[in-house]
TrEMBL record:
It comes from Ogataea philodendri. SUPFAM superfamilies: Prefoldin. The keyword rRNA-binding does not apply. It holds the Pfam family Prefoldin_2. This is Prefoldin subunit 6.
Amino acid sequence: MASQVNLEQLSQQYTKLQSDLSDLVRARQKLETQFQENKIVKEEFDRLDDDAKIYKLVGPVLLPQDNSEANLNVDKRIEFITGDIARVEEKIQQHQKDLENIQSILVNAQTA
């Protein structure tokens, strides 16, 4: 009976980890999209002349922004997103290891 309860707990834990892993993968995809968008913006900025006018959308208003400030903001966003991607990747790898461990325990318990 105790082993049955333990199997149920492991099974529930496995299901939760799968759900969490799916959420992490979705978060990773969202971050990758943001990274690609910011990379495109950076490439566009690199093509502009130094005296080109850059505007930033703030609410419903376009406000002029300094060229170097706009570049710095995009660089910082890219740096921040890259860090977030690395953290999410770490979590994904840990969840995958945990899932493999629980799966092996479940398989061993079911064959015993």
